[in-house]
Amino acid sequence: MKSGAVSKALANGAIWGFIILQLIFFSVAGEYLSLSDKAFMDWENMLLLLKQSAPIGIIAMGMTLVMVNGNIDLSVGATFAIAAIVMLDSMTWPIFAGLGDGVIPIAWLLALTAGTVLGALNGLIVWKTGVDAFIVTLGSMLGYRGIVFMFNGENPTSHLNWTLVDFAEAEFLGLATASWFLLLVTFAIWFLMTKTVHGRNAYAIGDNREAAVNAGIRVGPHMMINFAIIGFLAALSAVVFYSESGSVNPNDGQLYELWVITAVVLGGTKITGGAGNVIGTFGGVIAIQLLRKGLGHIGADTSTVNLVIGLILIAVLFLDRQLNVKGKEELKV
Amino acid sequence: MSDMSQNASNLREGMMASMSKQQIGRVLAKQGILIAFAVFMIAFAIASPKFLSVDNVFSVVRSSAIIGVMALGVTFVVISGNLDLSVGSMMSFSTIVVLDLHDKLGPALAIPAMFAMTLCLGAFIGFLVGYLRLNSLIVTLGMLSAIHGLTLTYSGGQNMDIADKEGTWFSVFGQGTALGIPVPILIFLILAALLGMVLAKTPFGRKVYAVGGNGTAATFSGIPRARTVFYCYLISATCVATAGLIQASRSLGSQNTVGQGLELEVLAAVILGGASLLGGSGTVFKTVIGVLILGFIQNGLLLMGLQFYVQFVVTWIIIILAVWLDIAAKRGKLWSPIA
What we know:
The complex is a heterodimer.
Chain A: H1 3-33, H2 43-68, H3 76-90, H4 103-129, H5 133-152, E1 157-158, H6 162-169, E2 171-172, E3 175-176, H7 177-195, H8 197-207, H9 209-214, H10 219-245, E4 247-248, H11 256-266, H12 278-297, H13 302-325
Antiparallel strand pairs in A: 1-4, 2-3
Helix pairs in contact in A: 1-12, 2-7, 2-8, 2-10, 2-11, 2-12, 3-4, 3-5, 3-10, 4-5, 4-10, 6-10, 7-8, 8-10, 11-12, 12-13
Chain B: H1 2-16, H2 21-47, H3 54-79, H4 87-105, H5 107-131, H6 136-155, E1 160-161, H7 172-175, E2 177-178, E3 181-182, H8 183-201, H9 203-213, H10 215-220, H11 225-251, E4 253-254, H12 262-272, H13 284-303, H14 310-331
Antiparallel strand pairs in B: 1-4, 2-3
Helix pairs in contact in B: 2-13, 2-14, 3-8, 3-11, 3-12, 3-13, 4-5, 4-6, 4-11, 5-6, 5-11, 8-9, 9-11, 12-13, 13-14
C-alpha cells in the first residue's frame, strides 16, 4: 500500500465522518441543552438545512473549480450583491413595465449575465496581465463592492414580486427551490469536472501549469471560463436567494468568500490546486451549515460559531498536513 | 542579498554606459510607485488648491495612520512569504480589550495588558505558520473568523465605551498633538523609521528577506526559518495592538466590528508599495508610500466632489495597474506569456 493512500482515503471520507459526528453530538447535547422540544435530527430540520446551505453551496461549487484550477476568487461576495441589485432593480425599469410577470426571466437573465461578465473580467485580467488571481480578485472585491455602494448609497434595494416569491418558496418532491438549485449545480459541476475535457484540463493546469502548457493545453481560456462560471454561480446564488427575500443591502454577501473558501477547504480541495472534488465540497458546505444550526440548537450564540469554524478550519489544515507529510522527506528545521 | 546582486548588475550596465530599454524598464519598476505618487499629488494639487494645505495633509495622514501602522507589520509578514488576513479582526479585539480594561484596571495597566493579549494571538498564528508550516492564507482566514468570535464573546456583543471620557489621559494617543504634530502621525512615523531600520539594517531583516525569497535555500544557509516567520507575526501583532490603541484612544468607545475589512485595505497598501506576495521583496518605505497613496487618493477624490465609494473602484484599478506594470517591467513584456 502506498503511503499516500491512507491519507487520500481519509481526505475523501473524513468530511462525512465529521458530519456524522456532528449529528450525533448535537442530537445528544440537544437533549440536555436545547430550549426547544424538537429533536435536532428532525426530517424537516434537515430539509431546511439543505435549503439554507444553498447560497453558500452554489458559490462553493464554482470555487472548487477555480481552486482546483490553481486560482482563487475573493470577489464572489461582491458579485453576489451586484447580481442581486441587477435582478431586483431591473424589474422596476420602465421599459419592462408592460410585460407583467414576463419581466422575471429577463431580470434573471440580466443578473446572471452581469455575474458572468464580472467573473470573466477577473479571468481576463488574470490571463492577460499575469497578475496573481489573489491580487486581482482582492482588487475587484473592493471595486465591485464600490459599484454596489455607488448604485444606491447605503440604502437597500427592494422589489417584491409575488410570483417570484411563490416560485422561490415552492416545493417540488419535498425539496425547496433553492435546494433543487444546489443539487443541480452540484451535479452540473461534478459532470463538468469529471466527464469533460475542460474539467480534466482544469485539474492538469492546477497540478502543474508548466506541464499543462507543454502538453498543449491553452491555460488562459480555461482559467477565464472557470472565472466566468464562478461569476455565473455567484449570480445564480443571489438570484435564488433574493427571489424570496426581495431586498438587498449593500453590505450583503460580505464575508461570503470566507465561508465559501472554508467549505471548499473542509471538503478536501488543495489550496495550491490540482486536487479536490465537488462531492467533498458538498460535504464541507453541509458540515458548516450543520455547525451553525447545531450550535444555535444547543443555545450558543453567533460569536461561538465564528470561533469554532475558525478553529476547525485550522485543525483540518493541520490534520491534512500531518497525514500528507508522513512518509515524505521533510526538511526538519 | 537579491538587492546586492541587483546593484551589481546595475553597476555593470552603468559601466557599459548604454541606457538600454530594459534599464529604463528596471528604473520604472524600482521607482514606479514614487513616480505614480508624484503624478497623483501634482494632478490633485492643480485640481484643488486645498489639497496640499497643511491642514489637509495632516488630516489625511492622521486618518491613514491606523491602516499605516498595521501595514508596517504586514510588510514583514508579506516579505517573509506569508499573508496576514487576520489584522482587521485582531484590531477590533485589541480596541475592545483596551477600552474594557481601561475602566477596570486604569489606562496604565490596560495598555500593557492589551499588548500582551494581542501578542498571544500573534504568537499563536506565528506558531501555526512558522513552526507547523501551515498555509498562512487559510490559517489567518480561520483566525479572522475565530478572533471575531472571540471579540464578540469578550464584549458580549455590546459596544464598549469609556465611562469618564473627559477625565482620562488615555485620549492622548489618538487626539493629542506633540510639537505641533498629531500624535497618531508621530507614532506612525516613529514606528515606520524603527521597523524600516530593523528590516534594512539588521541581521534579522536580512533573514526575513532570505526566508521569503527562497525558504529552502535559507534553511540550508542555517537561517532559522520557523523562528523568523514567528517573529514576523509577533511584529505584525505589535503593530495591530498599536493601531488598536490609536483607534480606541481616538474614539474612546467602539463597536466590536471596528476593524472589519481593514485587512484588505492594509494588504492593498502593502501590495501597492510593491511587495510581492511571493515574498522576498518590498520595503517599509515603499509601504508607507502605498499607505499615503491610498489616503491621498481617497481625500483627493472627495475634494474633487466625487462620491465616497468611487475610491473603491479607483483603488481596484490602481492596485491592478501597479502590480501589472511591476510584473511587466520585470519580465520585459506588457502582456503575460500565458497562452
